Predict the 3D structure of the following.
Amino acid sequence: MTETPTTHEPQPPKKKQHPFRRAVLRGLAIVMPPLLTIVLFIWAWNTIETYVFLPLEATARYATVWTIWDVRENVPDGVEVTERQGHQYFTAGDTTYVQLVRNKRWIPAYVYHNVEDNAEAWPANQPPPSTAKAYFHQYVRNELLPRSRLIPLFLALFIGMLYLLGKFVAANVGRMIVSWFDALIHRLPVIRNVYSSVKQVTDFVFVEQEIEYTRVVAIEYPRKGIWSLGFVTGESMLDIAAAANEPVLAVLMPTSPMPVTGFTITVRRSEAIDLNITIDQAIQFIVSCGVVVPAHQQQKNNRV
């Protein structure tokens, strides 16, 4: 029985994009990277503000209010009460007190007038202060712990904490603790998948790579006719070079789309082709799965 040869029908030519659509897509390609970068940093700051800065700010404010708390329930005996502009005042020692209209308690006049003179600083989602506690908290916000002081101080402390944490992790004890924590997370069924993916991304973005790549090469791997990009990390081992009877190279073969993962192979130096591209250009090529090609390496008028 003879097999009928299969015939491949010619595919219709790929339809060209409309010039307007092509221009819009090019505009998006230009706008999206910086826009997404800004959005990412805004999201990171909002997360830090919500879960770190605001709790610390509230704690500092409550501690400050507790320190300066000075509220009188009644007028001391023998002290004269005066009335000015519809408010009652009395002076005890070096402090002048004013009576609140709502609960008739007496608070320092400097606290009351500071809050009233800065009414525009009241939080939009809160009613104007009417109790002694509310006046003291707003006074601390206005005078003692304003955002203009807290945010620079917080950033300095936060960066300092990150520095100390990084130095601690770089030490042997810190590295052991982090390894133990990673091993503990990897035992949790669902969390370990999310944690591993997030850790790979953060390590790739924030952690300085300890491996120093010397150049980018192309190797026929995993078989002849298939070319893969790799980073030369060294000259491998002497015994392997002796067995190959020629110089060899240790090459890190990164995987797409996360070049932070991969494996190391040893190849003959004669089987590696040096590429005229930088490490960053090679990483962009790998992350984009071959879409982003350096301009000087692009093939002109060659359609796939």
Observations:
- The radius of gyration is 34 Å.
- The chain has eight helices and nine strands.
- Residues 73 and 105 are 5 Å apart (CA to CA).
- Strands lie at 82-84, 87-92, 95-99, 106-108, 215-220, 227-234, 248-254, 262-268, 272-274.
